Every structure is written in structure tokens, then in C-alpha cells.
Amino acid sequence: MVVCCREAWDRGVYGEDSWGLLIEEFGRGTFGRLGLRRSVRRQSEEELGFPNPSSTVQFGPGSDGNTSRPVQISFAAKEIDVAEWKGDLLAVGVTVKDMIKDETSKFQNSLLKKLDGLLRGFLGKASSEEDFTGKTGQSMVHRLPGLGFKRLQRLLKPVVLASSLPSSEGLSTESKSNTTSALASGTVLGTCDDNRYKSESKKPLLKSVDIIGLGTGPETEKKLKYAEVVSYAMLFGRELVNSLANVLSPAALAAEASKIASKNSDVLSANILTEEQCRELKMGSYLGGFAASANPPHFIHLCYKPLNGPTKTKLALVGKGLTFDSGGYNIKTGPGCSIETMEVDMGGSAAVFGAAKALGQIKPPGVEVHFIVASCENMISGTGMRPGYIVTASNGKTIEVNNTDAEGRLTLADDLVYSCNQGVEKIVDLATLTGACVVALGPSISGVFTPSDDLAKEVLEASEVSGEKFWRMPLEESYWESMKSGVADMLNTSGRQGGAINAALFLKQVVDEKVQWLHIDMAGPVLNDKKHVATGLGISNLAEWVLKKLFLNGFGPCRAKKENNLFEAVGFLKICFMNKKHVTRKGGGVV
């Protein structure tokens, strides 16, 4: 038999901390963005050899099992006898305490004892032989006699799965429902891999999951639905980031954003500004950023308005949308430049549009949310912005560009001015902005910068539920001296020291003082370094923050507060079933 599992949230976001596993194979039975004028002719995407994403690449779950796209998994909370459940795979979460045995080597836990009896002692014997104690990170392989390895591999593809806990005694109703939503989120994020660009890929087969013994009812169903919606929105965000620049151009990103609005047209609208419209709005900072690219820019604005009732608050979510960043004339060269991964420079926009996708389905009342992305590419050509150019942002601030590889903050400057002009009260921006933040906080933690203690508290509290790792960083105003220009209002970069702080201070200059603003530098955790794939960072936290603004607390899909988090010390016991008719007489039988 085969053992393979990770706690899916950690697998998806940080690639850390797998659960312990005990897997058994049995018969199926009762048991996943100086406006420069170009002289070059812009080529079409077809002329450039770019595929049309709408026809060749899919984003989001598929509708059936005939493609490599993840099929939408259905979830149900049930209160039934685990031993009477019918399906393909039963996953039982166990703690060290649950695995304690008596003097006769029998499980003391009533559920494990019952399952062990039904399986003729195989669970007890296997756990003893492999020293499986339910600790986090444990895994165990156990092959039943008479079943060929290849046959087991084929059969370990469950379509119907159940997840349960040996005991939920002492758990509050809230803790049970949080655990239920965490199991659903973990299943989606852990089982749905992005296989769109692989010539051969395994087809996802899991279709339904029953979560047993953690309660039922309207609140549990609501949390299950929320977990499902946000998790699939995270998969969508991952797929955007995973898509390389020859697939996800600014035009393609705008098209995907428009699809989100059209599918939720009762609450979402889309406005895509052309280059000429951006010139009319005097977005010189943004216009300078894409001057070298043959691909036209797309300034994307989605707006969420509730179906009915008064609007209590107006928010803006802003994302950096560089679908590729060569560095421009300050081209990325040398070890560690990471030019080969610069398709991820639109990670902020993926977070914003993933949140739009989720909120468009959740349809929270009383809030208006603007999703804003200035999408473009930073390339090199005769029309490109040179170091030393001066550009003017749409609020009149002049910027001396001393480094063309610090273009993200130039696009964000006009993003933020535009956002303030929408009359919002609070802005959260997300950007893969600086390598300095990665040096400071490492690959798993995003830096949070804001002059507002209240807004910092809101976003950080949301992160406690979403499970995303944020750390508030200082906005040291004395550092601004290094960002002052002799010929313009400011430089776009300073020296190496305090780079992440200086970048945040740059953005602060263009935000209206009446608007609360928070910046998230997500350059580190946008990618899972171990697996070289996107994490979907920011989507869950943004959705949670918006809902908490409406006092819709406790919706978190992935983690409850630590005292209620069952997954801090849980392993998983999996039992996979197959029908007796699948076992030939040759080589033995099955229990």
C-alpha cells in the first residue's frame, strides 16, 4: 500500500508540517501594473505566439473528470456510525492519546477499538510494528497480504472519502465547526494540483467528502460552504501565478478578471481602462512602467456592491500586476536575480482577484469593495523608460526613476491614487515588492506596513484565522531622507539598507491622509520554494478581513484560534477500501 499525505493548508501555503498517517487497504464495503509614445507597432498575441488563454488554458475547477482540471468536490457534515459509512477511503484524525493501548495491545479509544475489531486487529498490529503513535509528521506503509503493489496503486484513488475524529468530547460547537471547515479546505488545497501545463497528468478523481462526528446544522453548513468557496478561489489564484508570461499577458489577466465579474454580475462589475484612458487620467507613473512592452497595459477595476441594503463601509483591495518583470534597463542579472520566476510578480493581483471571486460568491451585505490592478509588463526596448527619467503620478507627485527595476511601486502609485478617488475608507495593497523583505522575514512571512494601528490589528487578527503568516514592520519616517530627489519630489529607490521600509514609505506619499492604508509585501511566501508552485497567499486573509469588517466572525476556513486548533497535534489514520471482487484468488484474499 501507499502512504502519502500532508496537512493540506501547510502543504499549500508553506510546505511544512505534515500530519502523521496510517493507511490501510481493504475492500470497498462499509466504510482538493512621462507617458512615453511608442514608435513600434504593437503585435497581436497571436503574432507573438501567445496562446489565447480563454481557449487553451482553464482557470478554476472543471466540471467533470475528463480533463486534468480539479473537479469541484462536494462536502457534507454527517452524524453517523463511522463503521456503517460506505465509500472508498476513511481518514481518521488521531492524537497521541488516541493511540494508547491497554495491556492486551488493544486500543483504548472506542472508535479505534471498534475499527480494529472489524479489521481483525490489523490496525493495532500495523501501528505497533511501524511505531505509529499519531504524532505530526508520522507516516506508515502497510501492505496487506495477497494484494499486488501495482494493484494497490491503482486502487488508492478514492472517489468518495470520509474524515472523522476518534473523539470530539470536550470540543465546543465553534471548535467542531472550525475543524469541519479546516478539513474541507485542507482537502481541496491538498488534493488539487495544477497540471495544466503537463503533457501527462493524473486525473483528479475525488468527488465527495463526508465529515463525520463534528456536528451538523446551519452554522456548520455555512462554514463548509465558505471553506469550499475560499479554497477554490485560492486554487484560482495559484493558477494565475503559476501561468507563465507567454500565457498570462496583461490582456489575459484582464480577461480573467472580467470573467469573475460576468459570472457574478448581480454584485460585481468590471471596468478595464485602456492606455489612452490612463493617459487622460495622467497616470504617468504607471505609463512609464510599461513603455518598453509590445503588450498593451490593462488597468483593471472590479467593483463589488451588495445585492440590497445600506452600504456600511467602502474598501479597496489593490494588487501589483506585473505579468513579467525583466527589470527594464536595470535588467535582472546575476545569481539570485530570479528573472526566471518573474511571472509571479503579479501575485498581488492574483490575491485581489481571488478575493473578488470568493466575495462574489459569498455576497456579504453592507460593504462595497473595489478590486484594482494596474497590469503591465516591464520589458526592454528603444521606447523603454531609462534610468534618470522623471515621471508624474496622477496626483501630481514627480518621481525620479533611478532604477527601472523598481517599477512595481510606480504602477502601485497610480493604483493607490485611483483607489483614493473612489471614496474608500480603507485600502489594503499586496505586492511582491522587495527582495529586502524576504531577507528580513524569510520565505514564509509577509511584511505588513501601515501608519494605522487599527487597520494593522484588523488584518493581523484576520491572519490568525486564515493561517497566513504576517508580521508588522516599522514605517521609519527618518528613512525618507534617503528617498528625496534633487530634481523631483522623490526617488523611486534608495540604497540597500531598509529597502522594504523605503518602498512602503514611497507608497505612503501618494495615499490620501484621510484614508487608512496598509501595505503587504508578499515577495517571500508567494511561492512554495520546495515545490516551485504558487501558494495562493492573501486570498483567504482578504476575504476574512472583509467579513470581519461586517462582524461576520468565525467564518475562517482554515484555522481557528490556537486553543481550538485540532491540527496542532494530530495524525491521520486512513483506511482505503476495495471490493472483494477486485481481488483474485491467486495470492490470497482480503478481510
From TrEMBL:
A Pfam family this protein belongs to?
Peptidase_M17
Catalytic reaction equation(s): Release of N-terminal proline from a peptide; Release of an N-terminal amino acid, Xaa-|-Yaa-, in which Xaa is preferably Leu, but may be other amino acids including Pro although not Arg or Lys, and Yaa may be Pro. Amino acid amides and methyl esters are also readily hydrolyzed, but rates on arylamides are exceedingly low
Classification via PANTHER family: CYTOSOL AMINOPEPTIDASE, LEUCINE AMINOPEPTIDASE-RELATED
NCBIfam families attached here? PRK00913.2-3
Family according to the record: Belongs to the peptidase M17 family.
HAMAP family, per database record? Cytosol_peptidase_M17
Descriptive protein name: Leucine aminopeptidase 2
Species this protein is from: Hibiscus syriacus
